[in-house]
Amino acid sequence: MSTPRSLRLSFRTRLTLVITLVFVAAGAALLAVQYFVVQGLFDSASRTTATSCELVTGPSAGTITVTGSATGCTTLSTESYPADWSLPIAEESGRAYPAFAATGAVIQQTRFLSDEVIGGLLVWSIVLLVAFAGIAAGIAFWLARRSLSRISEVTAAARDISERDLGRRLELPGPDDEIKELGDTIDGMLDRLQLAFAAQDRFVANASHELRTPLTTTRAALEIPLEHGDVPAELEPAVRRALRATQQSEELITALLSLSRGRAAVEDFAAVDLEPVVAVELAELEEAAAARGITVEAELEPAVVLGDATLLARAARNLLDNGIRHNLPGGRLWVRVSPTVLEVESTGDVLAPETVVLLTEPFYRGADSRLAAEGIGLGLAIVESIAHSHGGVLLLAPRAGGGLIATLRLPAVATSEA
Fold first, then answer.
1. Contact at 8 Å (CB) between 348 and 368?
2. Residue 18 and residue 149 in one domain
3. Do 61 and 151 reside in the same domain of the chain?
4. Over the stretch 216-271, which tens digit does the pLDDT of each residue have?
5. Cα 240 to chain center, whole Å?
6. Same structural domain for residues 62 and 141?
7. The domain spanning residue 204 has which CATH number?
8. Cα–Cα distance measured from residue 51 to residue 109, given in angstroms and rounded to the nearest whole number
């Protein structure tokens, strides 16, 4: 079972936690060793005091002096001893003193001092460990952010680069380390991808140009005999099928050229008003819509965008043609133009979300057989390509009750440019 994305910790957070935990573990181990070493030293000192202190008579009545080589021997008052201390007894001037009372008091004082120091050491060790753990967490977070900031730059740049702007490069500054090596490797990969895409586009464009001339010649050679009635009746159906196949090939070549041009970055963009562009395309497709009994409702308003007028007209025509071609007989088509948006909504068959995702794939024409389906399957692919070349996006969504909603969003032109 995968962890929800909202509950996942970022690598930076996990690295901070690991560094902090390692510091806390090392600090706790160091303080524990220090605690037991100090405790052992105090116990050793207490045992040394007990065995090395000896009794000496006091300089005045009621006191004794305990001296010895061990630290902690001192002068003690006899009044502080319990009455039932056991023998042996040391005598001075007719008074009796418990010989081991002084030694016991010294040991008691030493142990009291040991307990006080060890207890205080434990408390302060915990306080300092918590304080330095917080400091370590802050330093670890700073180090993690500093170390991973360049990786974030690589991620952001790689996310923004697409097949439409393969000319961009990361060109990471900074020391020649592993992160810079990663950036240079990605730049090298982009170089190879750019060359591959450029070669592909050149091949499509060149092949399309080369094929257009013989196809035009073939179409003319078929149309002229048909127009003059020079084709025998039994051969006319075959000739007309060949003519339709030639026309479809020409349409495919034109679509491939549009797709190739749409993939290329167009630099000479200008302010284009979508309203008249869409109105012209609607007028040209009015007859095709009427032939299928499709009712067209248009809501057009000025929408100035930055782009290429020819490509935008092609995108609008493809969206409208798609809405008519794949509509139901007697269906409806809604065309809306608002600032930076062209929306074409059409009735039709019920589409599954997974099918809608595939509609922009080149040559995909739905679940039906490719031979039975209408069109060549490049219409929406061309629209998406043109949208990307303009810095826009094509959004497709299934319509409730059947059909498709296609939304073309384009960047608005700046006021000064308009």
1. no
2. yes
3. yes
4. 888 888 888 888 888 888 888 888 888 877 876 777 677 667 666 655 555 567 88
5. 55
6. yes
7. 1.10.287.130
8. 15
